[in-house]
C-alpha cells in the first residue's frame, strides 16, 4: 500500500523536532534524534536507509528532517511542522 503525500507528512510531523530554524529552505534545519523510533517512522513513510543516512550527522546522533519534509511540503514552522498552504496573492 502506497501512502499519499499527506499521509507521509503526518508521519514525518509525528517526529519530535528538537531544534529548528526556518528562515529559508537553503538555511533551514529541523533536527531530531537519530534513533530506532524515528527511523521506523521514516521507513514507514517510504524512505530507504541510504536516504535517511544522507540526512544524518554521524557521531552526533542527529537527523535533519528539513529536506525530507520539503519533499512533500512547501512550508515549515516549529508550531505547524511541515505543511502545504495556499498563498493568497493580493
Q: Could you give a short account of the major beta sheet? A: 4 strands, antiparallel
Poorly predicted runs of 5 or more residues: none
Q: Please, how many helices?
A: 4
Number of strands: 6
Radius of gyration over alpha carbons? 13 Å
Task: Please give the order of strands in the largest beta sheet.
Answer: 1-2-4-3
The helical percent reads 25-40%
How far the N terminus sits from the C terminus, by CA atoms, comes to: 41 Å
Look at the helices and sheets and give the structural class: alpha+beta
**Which H/E pattern describes the elements?**
HEEHHEEHEE
Shape from CA axes?
globular
Arithmetic mean of pLDDT = 88
Q: Give the strand content.
A: 15-25%
Structural account:
31% of the residues lie in helices and 21% in strands. With 90 residues, the protein is an alpha+beta fold. The strands form two sheets. It has a four-stranded antiparallel beta sheet with strand order 1-2-4-3. Strands 5-6 form a two-stranded antiparallel sheet. The N and C termini lie far apart (41 Å).
Q: How are the secondary structure elements laid out?
A:
Elements: H1 5-13, E1 19-21, E2 29-33, H2 36-44, H3 49-54, E3 56-57, E4 62-64, H4 66-69, E5 75-77, E6 81-83
Antiparallel strand pairs: 1-2, 2-4, 3-4, 5-6
How would you describe this structure in keywords?
4-stranded antiparallel beta sheet; 6 strands; single chain
Q: How do you describe this structure in short?
A:
The protein has 90 residues and is α+β, with helices and mostly antiparallel strands. It is built from four helices and six strands; from the N terminus they run αββααββαββ. The mean pLDDT is 88.
Amino acid at each position: 500500500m502506497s501512502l499519499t503525500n499527506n499521509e507521509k507528512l503526518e508521519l514525518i510531523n509525528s517526529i519530535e523536532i528538537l531544534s529548528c530554524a526556518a528562515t529559508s529552505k537553503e538555511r533551514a534545519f529541523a533536527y531530531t534524534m537519530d534513533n530506532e523510533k524515528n527511523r521506523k517512522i521514516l521507513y514507514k513513510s517510504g524512505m530507504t536507509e541510504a536516504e535517511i543516512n544522507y540526512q544524518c550527522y554521524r557521531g552526533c546522533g542527529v537527523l535533519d528532517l528539513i529536506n525530507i519534509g520539503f519533499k512533500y511540503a512547501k512550508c515549515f514552522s516549529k508550531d505547524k511542522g511541515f505543511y502545504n498552504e495556499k498563498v493568497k496573492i493580493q
